[in-house]
Amino acid sequence: MVEPALSYGTISTIGVVFGARRIYGVPPSLCQDRMIFERTEEHPGARFLFILACLVVVVYGLKAAAPILLPTAMALFLAVLSLPMMLWLSHHKVPAGLATVITVLIFVSLVGLLILAGSSSVTVLQANLDLYQDLFVQRVGAVIDWADSLSDFDITPYVTTAAITDLIDPTWVVDLVRGAIGRIAQFAGTTFIVFLIMAFMLGEVTVFPEKIRYVLGENGGDEDRFAKVVTEVQTYLGIKTMVSAATGLVLGLWASVMQLEFPLLLGLIALVLNYVPTVGSMIAAVPAVLLSIVLFGSVPHALGVAMGYVVVNVLFGNILEPNLLGRRLGLSTLVVILSLLFWGWAWGPLGALLSVPLTVMVKIWLENTHDLRWVAVLLDKSPPPVPVGGEAEAV
């Protein structure tokens, strides 16, 4: 005798739940979970509180697991960037293991050179800090005397050098750069783990698609969706890194042309902060402009330095990068600022640096789902496209 089949999805009332548990052996935990979800569906307020509670747990887990998740995120970031290089080596008959080792060693060398260059420049900057502070005080005093000479009103009792230097303290720039480099150098103690995870990630590249295909089974659409997400993330990180490198190189050369000290450090700061759209470019210009004021004491020179940063960031950030990335990979300015605050709070300075790439990864994943695509629309910097002769596309 064939027993009647009962789908778990048809259990909708408490009586049927208990009957199913008695007759068909449905696990008690499943019945209880089903009852909980039915109650939340009947009461939207309870459902909202349930989702909010889950969100709080996830956020707390992200912060508590930062020592584990941050190195993993860094390794994933480097693995995605280095994947084209490893695949190129593999396509040129280099064994997979050797291609992985070569790729990891190249990235270890690049990261090590960046940290070494930044640390050496900060060391020299710290050694000359007292000189720069004295020059800054002199420049401020000269500006106050110049402004006082233009007016019959005596401003010196109200505008003093001490007040200006307290308001605009040049040491905060040095402390900011030194703290960032120090955090990176401190994180360098765990770089072995980062690159080890990266090596194993690259080693799984050849077999991971087979695993995904086996897990998904006949759901070919899910496999295609996963491949699309990976491709878009790789495209975003690759283009963003190339644009950031070009931005740092051009601004470093511009600092050298303007005879600013530490052009290598200024270019490195521009490279790193270019991963943060809008906000990062403004922050990167502050040290260069202050250094121009301290060294030359000339407003036209400082304006020239600032204008160079504006032109480069407009060309690369507002013209070249959007054309390469396309509309779908953009984030609104509000989302950028909120992601900076959130990831910076959860994972510290390195989390703030990875905030936009991480948020873009989440956005790409949301765009390739059916039920959460509306969240990706909210994160976008522009409204969804409107078909010709119709309304905006529903998500």
Model description:
77% of the residues lie in helices and 0% in strands. It has 395 residues and is mainly α. The chain has a domain of 141 residues. It is globular. The two termini are 47 Å apart. The N terminus is likely disordered.
Task: Present the secondary structure layout.
Blueprint: H1 14-23, H2 28-42, H3 44-64, H4 66-91, H5 96-127, H6 129-149, H7 161-167, H8 171-187, H9 191-203, H10 208-216, H11 220-257, H12 263-273, H13 279-296, H14 299-325, H15 333-353, H16 355-367, H17 373-379
Instruction: Give the H and E element order.
Output: HHHHHHHHHHHHHHHHH
Q: Into which percentage range does the β-strand content fall?
A: under 5%
How many DSSP H or I helices?
17
Q: What is the approximate shape?
A: globular
Q: Tally the beta strands.
A: 0
What key attributes describe this structure?
17 helices, 77% helix, globular, disordered N terminus, 395 residues, mainly alpha
In brief:
This protein is an all-alpha fold and about 400 residues long.
